[in-house]
Amino acid sequence: MVLFCLCLSLILNAQESLSEVLDEYNNGSIPYITVDELATSKTETVLLDAREIKEYRTSHLENAINVGYDEFNIQTVLKNIKDKTTRVVVYCSIGVRSEDIAEKLKEEGYTNVYNLYGGIFEWKNNDYIVYDHDNEPTENVHTYSKKWSKWLLKGNKIYD
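Given the sequence above, the corresponding structure tokens read:
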């Protein structure tokens, strides 16, 4: 019976979709923007990377500003984005940490804040370019942990 329950649990977890994961961890307080909407938009946008510096150095979206998560400091945002009506898109690996950071921006008075649905993983999964610490295109994507790496379907998974 224990073995059956364990197998059933593994099957159910394997069937969990990205949407279900985001619904589980996020409260929906920040609207999502899809990777295609962001990639094809002509609207001036500031990108904030809510991952840790080692993740950012492995790969990030072009021109993104790393604001981190564990050591997030709103002063970094205030210094870089003076106009609180500027469109800001926050991203992380899949879109969980970025919602937390985006909520802090809203609390500070930013009015045009979005969470990138699926984060950098979805960006890479849709064949968009990511850049390394030298701002060169790379196939490497830091996956935060092995648990979360299942959502990265393209590119090289880096765990360090």
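The chain has one domain: 17-158. Try to locate this feature in the token string yourself.
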